[in-house]
Amino acid sequence: MFPLLGGKLQLIDVNDGFLSLMLLSGEIKDLKIPDGDLGREMVKKFHEGEEIMVSVLKAVGEEHAVDFKIITK
């Protein structure tokens, strides 16, 4: 069994097939936009001006965006 780590990070930009996510430290992490409907919907909502939190799963040295939630204003 291997450890699974995860977290929610704020989406601050979308560019060249990558999501730019802000870490709690203020640093920026770029992750590949997920394939399929998840990635398309995430990018669409971001371009519509929604504030988005992205759920990131980390396992075996890889990180992937696995879900997102619109931040209620």
From TrEMBL:
UniProt keyword terms in alphabetical order: Hypusine, Protein biosynthesis
Keyword Glycoprotein: no
Translation initiation factor 5A C-terminal domain ranges (all copies): 8-69
Gene Ontology terms describing biological process: positive regulation of translational elongation; positive regulation of translational termination
Molecular function in Gene Ontology: ribosome binding; RNA binding; translation elongation factor activity
The family this protein is said to belong to: Belongs to the eIF-5A family.
Name assigned to this protein: Translation initiation factor 5A C-terminal domain-containing protein
Species in which this protein is naturally found: Cyprinodon variegatus
Phylogenetic lineage: Eukaryota, Metazoa, Chordata, Craniata, Vertebrata
